Amino acid sequence: MSREIVVGVDGSKPATAALEWAAEDARRRGTALRIVHVREPWAHTYPFHAIEGFAQSYSEFCEGVLAAAADRAREIAPGVEITTDLAEGTVVETLRARSVGAAALVVGSRGMGGFSGLILGSVGLGLAGHTEVPVVVVRKPQRNKYHEVVVGFDGSLHSEAALEFAFEEARVRRGRVHAVYAWEMPVLSPFAVGYGAALEEIFDNERRAARLRLAPWRDKHPDVPLVETAVCGHPVPALADASLVADLVVVGSRGLGGVRGALIGSVSHAVLHRAHCPVAVVRPRER
Question: What are the tens digits of pLDDT across the range 149-159?
Answer without folding.
Answer: 999 998 888 88
